[in-house]
Amino acid sequence: MHPSTGVATCAAERRHCGRRPRRPPADAGPHHPLVTDYPGRPFIRTRARLQRTLTELLDDGTGRVHPALQPLADSLLAMPKPDRALNWLHNNPRLPGYLQAPARGEVPLTHDGLHSLDSWRTAAHLRDLLMACGTLPPVDRQIMLFEGWSRQRLAARPDDHSRLLRQFATWHQLPQLHAAARHAPLSPGARNYAAEAFGQAEQLLARLDRHTLSLAALSQGELDRWDVERGNRAAQVFLRWAQTTSRPCTRNRGNGSCRSRSARRRPA
User: Fold this and answer.
1) pTM for the complete prediction?
2) d(CA 119, CA 148)
3) Could you give the CA distance from residue 168 to residue 155 in angstroms, rounded to a whole number?
4) Beta strands of the chain (E only): which ranges?
5) Rounded distance between C-alpha atoms, residue 259 and residue 268, angstroms
6) ∠ CA 242-247-248 to the nearest 5 degrees?
7) Is the pLDDT of residue 146 over 70?
8) What CA–CA distance (Å, rounded) separates 86 from 184?
9) What span, in angstroms and rounded, lies between the C-alpha atoms of 138 and 181?
């Protein structure tokens, strides 16, 4: 090696500089010290650092990883590129708390427990990993994304709107999505359509608030105008549900307004 330029000056050194790194045996497991992501870059220290981080985050209070979360730790340690797992753990400020909470029993290690977390996107990715390693039972991913998204939307709505929208999502939208998922995995388009229908219902209820109206007081003409303005099939989903349940929107023959079926059956 030339002392000033750092360039290999002999054939032996040139051969050594261009030599490919040793590859692990064909039957080597993911923890073999020669398993690498880039040529010549072993991950011995990276895996050790990842293992220490996981032990700290998934500690159940005994100094060890919570038994139910051990499959998650194993799957992350088995990644061919463990530095990506470290980046994921370090770059998301919410993630450490989301891992520590179920490990310490502060949040149930269930789908519903993950729905209670603030960031539905982070919770969705964590749920995918927990389902992949067998810690959580498999559920269609699009259903979980919609349910997590809708729960956060409901938390930001007024109480009266939240109650009606929750019934719409729980009694109508989610059963339909589950029924469709039994035949084939749902596409992102199916989730987007459900989210659009939910959003249209939010807009309709907000419009009623602006005009100090209730859903029961809507006339058929106002409902027709809403349909025409939207020109959108998703905008009709909520109204059809309201018409076919005990919710409002059965037309009153006298003045064209809507009232609930339960009100019609009420004795004078």
Assistant:
1) 0.63
2) 9
3) 15
4) 250-251, 258-259
5) 15
6) 85
7) yes
8) 34
9) 12
